[in-house]
Specification:
0% strand, elongated
């Protein structure tokens, strides 16, 4: 039974990558220098996107996916894939810089607001007039049938 427990622990230890992490630490310098190359291509693509004024996510999804693939490649190569790692910090900075306006809700322009609100106000104001007209319509209608 003891041998089975040791075998199971060794299997979990090697399959989860815990053994590799303890033997080979994350090479931060290699990761940062190569990710800088990935981010420079992304930054050049984002310069013309107008990301400061509006959310550019749908238009730059392809470029972002290329950045993610590049960063993931260098994270695997430099063994920096652990939780709370450099990869998370890198993408948090990217999101703060380029996609900060994506979660914000903005009011539509004034003319759009007027077009949305005006029909409700007009209907509310004319509803009493319509009710008066419908209730007095039978009284004022002349008897054309001769009855």
């Amino acid at each position: 039974m003891m041998m089975f427990t040791y075998s199971l622990l060794a299997f979990v230890f090697f399959c989860t990558g815990l053994s590799v992490k303890s033997i080979y630490p994350c090479d931060k310098h290699m990761f940062q220098s190569n990710v800088h190359i990935c981010s420079s291509v992304f930054n050049k693509s984002m310069e013309t996107s107008g990301h400061h004024e509006r959310c550019t996510w749908p238009a730059v999804k392809r470029i972002y996916n290329q950045l993610k693939l590049c960063v993931d490649h260098w994270a695997k190569t430099s063994l920096c894939l652990s939780r709370g790692s450099l990869v998370d910090d890198f993408f948090q900075e990217v999101h703060q810089e380029y996609f900060a306006s994506c979660g914000q809700v903005h009011d539509p322009p004034l003319n759009t607001m007027i077009m949305l609100i005006a029909p409700g106000i007009i209907a509310t104001l004319f509803l009493p007039l319509l009710c008066i007209k419908l209730t007095t319509w039978n009284i004022e209608m002349p008897n054309t049938l001769g009855l």
